[in-house]
Amino acid sequence: MSGGRLVTATSAKSGSTVTAVVNGVSTTVQVARDLTVAAGDVLLVERVGAQWFAYARVFASAPTAPPNDDPPPPKPTITTGTLIVAPVETRSWRPSYGWRSDNTDVYQGEYGGWGNHTGAVFYGRKPRSLAGATVTKATIKVKRLSAGTYAAQSTTLRLVTQATRPGGAPTLGSTTAGPSIAVGSQTTFTIPDAWAQAMVDGTAGGLAVYDSSGSPYVRFAGRGSWSPAFTLAISWRRG
User: Would you list the DSSP string of 82-135?
Assistant: First the structure.
């Protein structure tokens, strides 16, 4: 036999029983024969074996939280924030020449028969500092430099597996439409949440601009030309 405790009836007495909240669980409670119970009444109950018995009502009316009722579980804590990630390197690759060493800009396309560029951006390990968080938005800053047609040109953005520059060509994954801006313009461009999530989870490490046709020819500023180039802002949530 357990000691008495206070619980809240959630229904009126029906026959010889009533439902009440016991230990946070709706429970069928046997009621003393001469005891009238309404929903909301606070009952003094005692357990005999596996069965709870109510033998008295207490208080003039039900308090907001009976003293012995278990409190509701706390709401989960949700935290949010934004992580700013500068690239560890920006560079462009051409199949016959390898990585360009004359500048750090990010090229798409081919000019003058010198090979089709893959312009790549690598973010290192910093996105992994958010491991376990959910990405809610991700953006990059881009600026277009003089090269090719002055007007806005379409680009193709790719997800890159490596977090740092490999010796050979970068490994390209998913694709989406990239920034389209005129020479001299700059913008903040939104990338897919799933791409930034892949960087947080460690299955991807960078971005690239690449079109298999070699056109249009576009040059974006790299870290050596413009300090905010391809800075990644990852908005995140935990909880």
Answer: EEEE--SEEEEEETTTEE--S---EEEE--TTS--EEEEEE-TTGGGGGTT-EE
**Listed residue (1, 237, 185, 221) closest to 103, CA to CA:** 221
Q: Encoding tokens for residue 86? A: 């500068």
Q: Is residue 64 part of a domain?
A: no
In the chain, the largest separation of any two C-alpha atoms, in whole Å, equals 100
Span 163-194, pLDDT tens digits = 999 999 999 999 999 999 999 999 999 999 99
Instruction: Name the token pair of 59.
Output: 């208080």
Residue 69 lies in a domain: no
> Does residue 219 share a domain with residue 186?
yes
Virtual torsion, Cα 58, 60, 66, 68, nearest 10 deg: -20
pTM over 0.85: no
Calpha distance 8→182 (Å, rounded): 69
Residue 141 lies in a domain: yes
Do 99 and 49 fall into the same domain?
Answer: no
In one letter, which amino acid is 129? S
